[in-house]
Design a protein that fits this description.
The protein is mostly helical. The chain contains 6 helices and no strands. Helix 2 crosses helix 3 and helix 2 packs across helix 4. The protein is elongated and about 70 Å long.
Length: about 120
């Protein structure tokens, strides 16, 4: 087997920072038990991930989606537009988001009122 270099992978992913992120994500997947697409050859998971990228044996878009959204890619990932779709994806309805925002606003109002009352009373702390 020829020695693997980063230049072998840069042909597929020109940005070295993105290459690092994707290879690390794939190495995590391999550690979690994902199936190998190349022979192990007594290599560790980060090296296997780089070899898979260089040999073009994995779907980089799926790894990108997992890196960005976390978890497994969904069938409707292509349909995601805007924040409301993301909220639906994580299981929050519009009503739940509105209730959470109202609760936070109420907490902010209560905190500012308590602070203002403490200043008006002239109490020394």
């Amino acid at each position: 087997m020829a020695r693997l270099t980063v230049e072998d992978c840069v042909d597929r992913i020109p940005n070295r920072f993105e290459l690092t992120l994707l290879a690390a994500q794939r190495a995590r997947e391999l550690s979690a038990g994902a199936a190998l697409t190349v022979d192990r050859d007594n290599d560790k998971n980060p090296v296997i991930a780089l070899r898979e990228i260089a040999d073009d044996t994995i779907d980089l878009e799926a790894i990108r989606r997992k890196l960005i959204y976390g978890g497994e890619p969904q069938d409707d990932d292509a349909e995601v537009d805007g924040d409301s779709a993301f909220a639906d994806e994580v299981g929050l309805s519009g009503d739940a988001i509105a209730q959470a925002a109202a609760a936070l606003a109420a907490l902010d109002d209560d905190s500012s009122n308590a602070f203002a009352e403490g200043e008006e009373g002239g109490e020394d702390v």
